[in-house]
Amino acid sequence: MKNEERLHNRDLTPRARELRKEMTNHERKLWYAFLKSYPVQFKRQTLLNNFIADFYCPKAKLVVELDGSQHFVNNGVRATRARSFSHTSTEK
């Protein structure tokens, strides 16, 4: 990436690739109906630190996360909370 250091967990790369191939219906609809042709570039299933963001716009540093049923099971709730708290605690 141009002048932008991206730290991410390379162990998650295979999972991100898998998620790109197996998007949920809602992710697919948002991508093909809107984000893919949006004037500002978005990327799908992007690695950011130890997380895989559904959609990421590097120019705006914006993450779009579609909450699906995986966020409402016990492990998903814990992971979502951990992600939210770790993100807010690292901001300056």
Could you explain how this protein is built, in words?
- With 92 residues, this protein is an alpha+beta fold.
- It has one domain (10-90).
- 38% of the residues lie in helices and 17% in strands.
- The chain has helices at residues 13-21, 25-33, 74-90, and strands spanning 43-48, 51-57, 62-64.
- The protein has a 3-stranded antiparallel sheet.
- Strand 1 (43-48) and strand 2 (51-57) form a beta hairpin.
- The longest helix has 17 residues, at 74-90.
- Residues 1-5 and 88-92 have low confidence and may be disordered.
Number of strands: 3
> What spatial order of strands do you see in the largest sheet?
1-2-3
- Low-confidence sequence ranges: 1-5, 88-92
The biggest beta sheet, please? 3 strands, antiparallel
Using only C-alpha atoms, the radius of gyration works out to 14 Å
Mean pLDDT: 78
- How many discrete structural domains? 1
* Strand/helix succession: HHEEEH
Report the structural category. alpha+beta
User: How far is the N terminus from the C terminus?
Assistant: 22 Å
Shape from CA axes? globular
Q: DSSP helix count?
A: 3
